[in-house]
Design the sequence.
């Protein structure tokens, strides 16, 4: 029910560079899981409101005040590559 | 844990001596158990010394002061590597503490280290850690459960006096059952998730793993309560959970859901749980059979909602701001794809793919949308049940701990969470306590499920049961 092209499409959306072996395995595994999940179709959910959170909380508000935050250096300390106060990434724009 | 704090107050033991004893025990035994990913010896000894000073000046901070605890390595700890058992965060050192970590430190607790888990908490056996498997202290050939398997094994093997884990679909309760410890999942929002690395944000909840119910109550009391850093935390006062333990179960109406006693449940588990229900009746509770008709659909709902939220939450691991970056990329998009391909393990990739598929154009209504509606039906089942009863009692897991490598098929592994997932979907509190042993000597877990924010009743019943039985006298033999 889900073919290799679906797997490749979703892998692109999820930014996962999968090997051919991984794609083949995922195609089988995801098909099995999705066919199990199909049992949800047995239930009538007509007119049922979706639950997105377990506790009904609405619009938690707070004053818009300036609060102390972590210093830039602390936030940059885990960067895999950086230049001064910037995160460095592979070139995006062609010359 | 509470015995240790009593001993500190009497002056029989010092926090430093206790921390040293735990560190020595970890050194001696954890090579076989594999509960810890990181041991924080220096910090532990420094915190123990500070606690010792407070006891000496007769001013301890409370019942957790100087108590050595372990933290699931999914909780951010400032200056201490937090890996989520993933290669993608192997060298990540958080610049801040999770709220629960801050609160435990303020209570004087001594962090011994960070415990193993299934990568990003995705799993039920702790076999999906990128670094090591954890072994069940009752039988090293078996899994400790998961995903908080390191925390459960640490408490069971007495490599920590108590621990924190997180529970998205059973990840505190199922390993607690497999390792024979107490594991408590609070009401969604009772404990702040700030600094808990996100897996499925509408389901994740932090809670204690402990040697007994009193310890679980003390740990929960220290970490619960609203937090301005988590807008989903519930703004309700926190009960005195330890004070709520006494009072017994006289007059308590207990529901026994028929869907939790089906053919697929191990006979040893059925027998032990039935006996536990009989004990609760002898103590004065009344029981009645109830029905939770959507029980059988819980796993299907969970395996749409959790992967969908995970695929979104884990989009942040892109090799830019922190974490691993794969070398040799030809451009930015290529860098993302390669980084995530080498950084994530097979189970994490599987769930990201499943979630991304369920959310993708054309499938949203059929999968994610429908799952959210069925989630409402699951919640309504519990609401209807709680109109008749005060508490629901059931097995935590359909079986005892299985062997390493026994569940190779992902779906078979997922189905192990059939009895724990519904409480996450409904957002309600639930605990697992030891209620016996299988013929092979493996612990069995009894699950008590309560109304939203009714942690006190859940704890009170669990405590009454624990006091009336002697299961805790048996300990794993690790030499």
Sequence:
């Amino acid at each position: 029910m889900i073919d290799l092209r679906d797997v490749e499409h979703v892998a692109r959306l999820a930014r996962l560079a999968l090997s051919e072996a991984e794609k083949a395995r995922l195609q089988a595994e995801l098909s099995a899981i999705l066919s199990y999940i199909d049992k949800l179709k047995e239930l009538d959910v007509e007119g049922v409101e979706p639950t997105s959170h377990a506790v009904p909380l609405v619009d938690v508000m707070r004053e818009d005040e300036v609060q102390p935050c972590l210093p830039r250096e602390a936030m940059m300390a885990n960067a895999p590559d950086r230049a001064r106060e910037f995160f460095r990434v592979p070139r995006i724009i062609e010359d | 844990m509470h015995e240790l704090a009593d001993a500190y107050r009497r002056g029989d033991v010092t926090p430093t001596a206790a921390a040293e004893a735990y560190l020595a025990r970890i050194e001696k035994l954890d090579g076989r158990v594999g509960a810890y990913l990181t041991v924080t010896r220096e910090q532990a000894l420094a915190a123990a010394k500070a606690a010792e000073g407070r006891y000496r000046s007769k001013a301890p901070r409370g019942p957790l002061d100087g108590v050595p605890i372990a933290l699931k390595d999914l909780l951010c700890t400032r200056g201490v590597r937090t890996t989520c058992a993933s290669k993608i965060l192997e060298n990540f050192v958080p610049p801040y503490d999770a709220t629960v970590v801050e609160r435990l430190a303020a209570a004087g607790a001594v962090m011994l280290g960070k415990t193993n888990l299934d990568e990003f908490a995705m799993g039920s056996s702790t076999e999906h850690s990128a670094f090591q498997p954890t072994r069940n202290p009752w039988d090293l050939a078996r899994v400790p459960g998961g995903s908080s398997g390191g925390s459960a094994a640490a408490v069971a093997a007495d490599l920590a006096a108590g621990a924190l884990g997180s529970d998205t679909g059973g990840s505190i309760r199922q390993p607690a059952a497999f390792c024979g410890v107490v594991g408590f999942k609070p009401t969604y929002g009772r404990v702040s998730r700030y600094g808990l690395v996100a897996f499925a944000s509408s389901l994740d909840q932090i809670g204690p793993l402990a040697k007994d119910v009193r310890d679980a109550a003390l740990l929960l009391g220290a970490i619960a309560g609203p937090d301005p850093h988590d807008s989903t935390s519930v703004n309700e006062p926190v009960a005195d959970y330890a004070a709520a333990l006494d009072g017994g179960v006289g007059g308590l109406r207990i529901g026994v859901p028929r869907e939790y006693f089906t053919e697929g449940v191990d006979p040893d588990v059925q027998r032990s749980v039935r006996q536990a229900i009989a004990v609760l009746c002898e103590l004065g509770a009344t029981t009645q059979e109830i029905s939770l008709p959507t029980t059988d659909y819980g796993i299907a709902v969970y395996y749409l909602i959790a992967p969908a939220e995970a695929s979104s939450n884990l989009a942040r691991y892109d090799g830019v701001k922190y974490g691993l970056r794969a070398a040799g990329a030809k451009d930015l998009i290529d860098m993302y794809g390669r980084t995530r391909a080498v950084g994530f393990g097979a189970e994490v990739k599987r769930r990201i793919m499943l979630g991304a598929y369920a959310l993708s154009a054309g499938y949203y209504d059929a999968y994610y949308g429908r799952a959210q509606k069925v989630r409402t039906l699951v919640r309504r089942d519990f609401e209807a049940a709680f109109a008749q009863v005060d508490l629901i009692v059931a097995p935590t897991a359909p079986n005892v701990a299985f062997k390493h490598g026994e569940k190779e098929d992902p779906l078979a592994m997922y189905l192990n969470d059939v009895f724990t997932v519904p409480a996450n979907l409904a957002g309600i509190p639930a605990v697992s306590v030891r209620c016996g042993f299988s013929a092979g000597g493996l612990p069995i877990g009894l699950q008590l499920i309560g109304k939203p924010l009714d942690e006190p009743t859940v704890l009170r019943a669990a405590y009454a049961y624990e006091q009336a039985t002697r299961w805790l006298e048996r300990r794993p033999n690790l030499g």
